[in-house]
Write a structure and sequence with these properties.
By secondary structure, the chain is an alpha+beta fold. It has three helices and five strands. A hairpin with a 7-residue loop joins strand 2 (50-54) and strand 3. The radius of gyration is 18 Å and the shape is elongated. The relative contact order is 0.17. The model has no long low-confidence stretch (mean pLDDT 91). Bound molecules: guanosine-5'-monophosphate and zinc ion. Guanosine-5'-monophosphate (5GP) is lined by residues 30, 53-57, 65, 110, 115-117.
C-alpha cells in the first residue's frame, strides 16, 4: 500500500470512528430520548424542529431549555447546515419571551465542562432570583 493510500485509509477509519461515537452519544442522549418520548416530559412548547421544556432544576422563576429535535452535540460542533435549527430555536425563545411578557431575561449556552447534557440547548432564564452561578 502506498503512503498516500495508507493516509487516506487512516482518515477514513478516523471519520468512521467519530461517526460511531456521535451515533452512540445521540442514542444515549437524554434530550433525544425526550424528543422520542422514551423519557416523559411536558413540553412547554414544540414545533417540528424544536422542543422547549421546563428545566428539572430551575435556577430562576422561569427556566426553560430550548433545543433542536435533531441531535447537535454543542456550540462547538454547530456547522453551516445547522443554521435553520438555530433560527428555529431563537424563534421559539422569542415566542416564549413575548407570551410570558418577560421584560428581563437571559439566553445562555453552556459549553465544555459547564455543559452537562451533550445535546445543544439554550437556557431561557427570567425572574427576580436568577442563581446565575448555578446555571
Ligand atoms: P447544561 O449544564 O448542560 O447547560 O444544562 C443542562 C440542564 O438540563 C440543567 O440545568 C439540568 O437541570 C437540566 N436537565 C438535566 N436532565 C434533565 C431532564 O431529564 N429533564 C429536564 N427537564 N431537565 C433536565
Ligand atoms: Zn441528543
Amino acid at each position: 500500500m502506498t503512503r498516500e493510500k495508507m493516509i487516506k485509509k487512516i482518515k477514513f477509519l478516523a471519520k468512521e470512528a467519530k461517526l460511531r461515537i456521535q451515533y452512540k452519544m445521540a442514542k444515549d442522549c437524554i434530550f433525544c430520548k425526550i424528543v422520542k418520548g422514551e423519557i416523559k416530559s411536558a413540553p412547554v412548547y414544540q414545533t417540528d424542529t424544536v422542543m422547549a421544556i421546563n428545566d428539572i432544576n430551575p435556577v430562576a422563576a422561569s427556566h426553560v431549555l430550548i433545543f433542536p429535535k435533531r441531535h447537535i452535540d454543542s456550540v462547538l460542533t454547530v456547522k453551516k447546515g445547522d443554521g435553520e435549527a438555530l433560527e428555529d430555536m431563537f424563534a421559539v425563545a422569542q415566542k416564549l419571551i413575548s407570551e410570558r411578557r418577560l421584560e428581563a431575561f437571559r439566553l445562555a449556552f453552556n459549553g465544555g465542562r459547564y455543559q452537562h447534557v451533550p445535546h445543544l440547548h439554550m437556557h431561557l432564564v427570567a425572574g427576580s432570583t436568577i442563581k446565575w452561578s448555578q446555571l
